[in-house]
Design brief:
6-stranded mixed β-sheet, 10 helices, elongated
Amino acid sequence: MDKVFSRRIALVTGAGLAAGLTVPGVAQAGGTDRVGFTLDARTLDGGEQVTSITLGTSRFGPIDPASLTTGTFSVHAKATSPIGTGGQDVGYDLDRPVTAARLDRRGDIVLELSHGEGQTGGGTLGYLTSKSRNVQLDLIYTVTQNAPVRLRHGRPLSIARFTQGRLANPEVDAFSYHSSRSGMKYRLYSPDSRRGRRPLIVWLHGGGEGASLPDNYYDNETTLRANRGALGFATREAQTIFDGAYVVAPQSTSAWMDDGPRFAPLINEIIRDVLRTRPVDSGRVYVAGCSNGGYMSLKMTTVYPGTFAASVPICGVVAAREEGGPPLIPDAELTAIRTPTWLVASRDDDTVDPQANTVHAHELIPRSSLTLYDHVVRDGHQFPGHWSWIYVARNDPSIGGTHVWQWMAGKRR
């Protein structure tokens, strides 16, 4: 069944002119004192950030762009956790610097906000260390107008109040909401209408993106907002390479590694749901995942050896979780894998030992491929070594001139 869309974004009212006064000769907003705004977000390599705000001002007529400066409006953001943090300081309460003010094609005012990898104050998620979970933060944004803007006919315009609306992330919003008969939630990207049956890519998230059922927290959101793992396969580049592919992103009720054998049939149920309800080519079903999901990608190929045309486990775990304990995936199971497999990790991963896990799996899985990076760096920013999924989400791994997406797309069962 489909999930009704809901958001944890409070409706707040921002101030009009900073002093809160009506200015003689300044038009109040078309006879109304309220203008709505959306929070425009993008999922960067390091996670989702609010990158701009769009004010619904087009109904007042053409605005002179020369009257817009970075000082015309101020933006304040407050973010808090939706569940208990165990005393951890999660979130922020700060001013967001406006780096540009412009008009979009509709004539609405867009306030570009300072953002970037590793920058505090723009993220939509918070990581709760005590629960090992990312949660979608409750966001409260306040917009203040510091000076009038000018309409094209010359009349000044001031807005008394601003009302916060939805969080808009076109890439995330392109994935519809669903839940399996067993209750596991998932998001699904559907390609543009084309004739014939299309491939299906299954993305399995990392440990931080599962639910926290003891807190009644199961959001079906963080799987697409914490990184670009699933989103990468829905980009125009990937869709061209795969000739239009469905992308499904199940969300675990905890962490895949907590009970892989139990989760495997629940994931398989979702795959069967999509195969039954969408025009999918059952011979072109691919699985990829990171960290916990890297483990689960491998586990799925051991439990369902005839389902997948290819598998891309990223920084996954196969070794024992505790010293002296049993391996998560025994050597005999790895040796028996026949699904074409391309493993990815970074040598500086200090969360999951790449030698004991990724390299070890590569040595045992027949005819598997391996890309092992030295560091995880993109656009000059160095990420933690564990985050090697960034490379797969950008189709970077390459062997013999063939990149990983092209390699996947060329495999058929």
